[in-house]
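sry for the spam today, last one i promise. struct tokens for design, 122 residues
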């Protein structure tokens, strides 16, 4: 799919193309990637929505590559974040892509989250 195309574009370019703050560790290490890198990127966006913060705002892009790609660091999930959201986020950024849930596996928890948000807004 598109993840392979995008991955190839990033790797074949010698520029600083891409946004490391949202990239999976395996992509940052120039390792083979599949759709699980998109799952990782998706939960960085979910983290942004849950925290209203910019990911890795205190680091420059090269520091992000080192921290995420080589030191296995992850963004902090504040205690105020809903436990369901926190569990979705933490399950999706495992260093081993094969341990991350697929998007189809995420449908159930995301639907629960949708119901939670709709109920809270009423």
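last one done:
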């Amino acid at each position: 799919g598109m993840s392979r195309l995008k991955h190839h574009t990033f790797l074949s370019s010698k520029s600083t193309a891409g946004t490391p703050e949202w990239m999976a560790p395996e992509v940052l290490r120039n390792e083979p990637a599949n759709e699980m890198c998109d799952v990782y990127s998706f939960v960085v966006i979910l983290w942004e929505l849950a925290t209203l913060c910019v990911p890795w705002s205190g680091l420059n892009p090269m520091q992000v590559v080192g921290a995420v790609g080589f030191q296995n660091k992850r963004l902090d999930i504040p205690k105020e974040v809903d436990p369901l959201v926190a569990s979705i986020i933490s399950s999706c950024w495992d260093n081993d892509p094969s341990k991350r849930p697929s998007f189809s596996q995420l449908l159930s928890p995301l639907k629960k989250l949708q119901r939670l948000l709709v109920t809270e807004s009423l």
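The radius of gyration is 15 Å. ok im logging off now
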